[in-house]
Structure formats: structure tokens, C-alpha cells
Amino acid sequence: MAYGFYGWQDATIQDELGLTPRDYYDLLSQIWSADTCAPRMRQNWSPENKTLGQCSITAFLLQDIYGGEVYGVPLGDGNYHCFNVIGDCVFDLTSEQFGTKKLNYVNCPKQERSAHFAKDEKRARYELLRFELLKRRHSLEEL
Predict the structure, then answer these.
(1) Which helix (H) or strand (E) holds 80?
(2) How far is CA 94 from CA 29, 58, 140, in A?
(3) pLDDT tens-digit profile of 32-47?
């Protein structure tokens, strides 16, 4: 199956359950919502653009699962678009929100969890996403 997120072809690393970032994309696609979207983007969120406003909470959640680092593509407005780097594996589960626009994933600054989660609303969105993902993951473990 072909995916649309950046780095999907090489996103073959596995967690302790054998799940890859592609598997997590499938799970998160059922979870991402207006409630998990960044408030400043919420009015533009839709099921057709489900990755909009989900980057930092998704990237830090995948860091919890796989380790590695979270980096940010500078967007030119003072904001960063977050993505994951685990060893040689670079992927961005939320890149589809940019449509055909190509982001430059080279020489991007590392993003610190403490800076991103200084906002209570972002931490709450992360906790909601994490809770829902763990429920779905637990269901897989029972199969």
C-alpha cells in the first residue's frame, strides 16, 4: 500500500509490538480530529485534511514509542512543522496537510518537548491523542 506522508517508503522501524510508523499512521487516521488539532487551525480542519494541526503532538507521541529526536521545519512565520528522526529513518506522519508543497527536512532545528508542552492546551491535546492511541494499540495486543 502506498502512503502519502513524507518518508513512508523507509518508515519500516518497528516497536515492541512489531508496529511501524505506517501502522501508526493507520491508527492515528482514526483518531485525529478537530479536538486534537491546534486551535489556530481548527476552523480549517476536516476529515479530508485530518493531519492539519497535528504535527507536534504526533511527533512527540511517536518519539515516546520509538525514541529518536523531533525536528522542526521552519515555516517562516515563527512556527515549526515537527517530524521524527530515528537513526536513519526520517518520517513526517502529518506532512499531507501541506498538499503538494515540498518541505525541506534538511538542517532543521531540534524541537524540545518542554517548549512545546509549555502550553496547557497542547499538552491536553497530546494526552487525548495518546489515550486514544493506547486504547487502539491495546485492542491490537488482544488479537
Answers:
(1) strand 80-86
(2) 10, 8, 23
(3) 999 999 999 999 999 9
